[in-house]
Amino acid sequence: MFATVTRSEGALLSTHTSIDADTVWELVVARAAQTPDFILITDENDRTLTCAQYRHAAERAAAGFYAEGVRPGDTVAWQLPTWIETIVLLGALARLGVRQVPVLPVYRDRELGFCLVQTGASLLCVPATWRGVDYAAMAARVAEALPGLEVRVCDRSLPDGDPATLPAPPAADTTRDVRWIYYTSGTTADPKGAQHTDHSSIAAGKAFCVRQHVRFADRFGMAFPFTHVGGLNNLLAGLREGMGLVCVEAFDPAMSAAVFTKNHVTLVGGAPAFYLSFIELQRKNPGVSVLPEVRFMSGGGAPMPPEMHLEVKREIGGLGIGHGWGMTESCITAINDPTDTDEHLMYTSGRAVLGMEIKAVLPDGSTAAAGVDGEMRVRGDSVMVGYLDPALNADAFDADGWFRTGDIGHLDVDGYVVITGRMKDIIIRKGENISAKEIEDLLYAHPKVIDAAVIGLPDRDRGEMVCAVVECRDGNDPLTEAELAQYCNDAQIMRQKIPERLEVVDTLPRNATGKILKHELRARYSARP
Ligand code: ADP
User: Fold this and answer.
1) Which of 57, 277, 322, 493 is deepest in the core (most CB within 10 A)?
2) For 368-393, b where at least 16 C-beta lie within 10 A, e where not — what string?
3) Residue minimizing CA distance to atom 19 of ligand 1
4) Which residues form the AMP-dependent synthetase/ligase domain (predicted)?
5) What's the fold here for domain 251-422?
6) What is the pLDDT of residues 212-257, one digit of tens each?
7) For the residues 46-56, what does the mean pLDDT come to?
8) Are 491 and 444 spatial neighbours (Cβ–Cβ below 8 Å)?
9) Is 271 in the pocket of ligand 1 (CB under 6 A)?
10) Does domain 45-161+174-215+224-231 have CATH number 3.40.50.12780?
């Protein structure tokens, strides 16, 4: 069940220590010095970079960018797949002390343009074409309206230069400067630019390592896009502990599992949509684990049906899922310790991570007691310094500096976080609040259902009606309204919560991190009675 540590890694284990650093670049340098030959990054084409090679490649690319005119303090956006070169580019720009704007590859003209205008980026790095999308053409279209923006096509290639020409790296006292602007994936409204610092990003990486017992020579299979804030956080975790990253340029369950297995992956990171893909893959391949050396899966970003933890533990193996609660604005905020009880792993998102505080707040502003739902607010090291658009900040933080997450939930008596919904994800039926998540969890457990989203649709009599949108295991034998009603009755939930409308879809619309796009479903079904 546990990964083999090679002989040279075994020798290093005795000398290895976790690295604390003020800046991202300092972390790169310290890791390269401590374990130069440890393989930091591997991709699906068996290309690798050791810690020393990573530092070297990043320095050369930094010098190349410098020669092309990029200066410390500039703003550079990059919309690139999860390639080794992308991770090198991040290191190169960190070496230069540039403000980085990683952009999800799924963004198109509208969202990309929005990010570029708002950040005032002077350079955008894109692939020529990737997976059928002409990124160079899109970048050119967007740049036409932005005279200050240059476009650089980085097709698995980066500029090259002599590191001796580089200016000094960022000083330790720049650790709280804004260096990262991550856009929320926009399941709600326009993307919002969350400003992070090296301090907040490094804190998130450390917190993940501490809570999830990351150790030297672990290998982390990165299922989600590197441009997500989790990409940076996991890279920093890898640099801190000497945890290798195994990357795939785009997620495909069978291919990713094969690459992860071949490279002795011990931890898999993602979100419920990724856990689900691996469970489905395992069911198609009974008998042999599709991820044989994985200790546990971890991730966050969306609600997880409780059964998923047991499904992973029982069917794939290992400890199951150490799920967490996090967001672009505050990175990993709470996450489970994978050695916690099944009860905690199934029903909670774990306790606040190192450096973070969490509380549930009642509508009158007081702190909710254990077990009582309120608006979840967070404070601490991994929270962004604010949105790039200052107009958003007045509402985003309360008077005491707590970030209002917009999520509803509570802390249990032991301080474990339970997210029960989202302020905008409550269905108000005849004045009664109904949590979509509760019904989704129930539907997920139905044998015919792969995944489900429950939404409120405008309704003249009820204000909103409860609509279930489900993806079924067998398209020829979908869930019927009668079966749904029977199932909900058997589960003895109150009648008002039983979905009044059922829509069966081939696939639920999801964003890049696999979160179901409920606003799309609402728009789709509100239009059609
Ligand atoms: P967006 O707000 O655009 O969806 P993010 O990708 O940053 O952006 O998503 C963060 C949100 O995802 C959280 O505010 C929360 O609603 C949801 N989320 C994250 N983790 C969990 C979890 N463990 N349980 C329930 N919801 C979660």
Assistant:
1) 322
2) beeeebbbbbbbbbbbbebbbeeeee
3) 301
4) 30-388
5) Rossmann fold (3.40.50)
6) 999 999 999 998 999 999 999 999 999 999 999 999 999 999 999 9
7) 98
8) no
9) no
10) yes
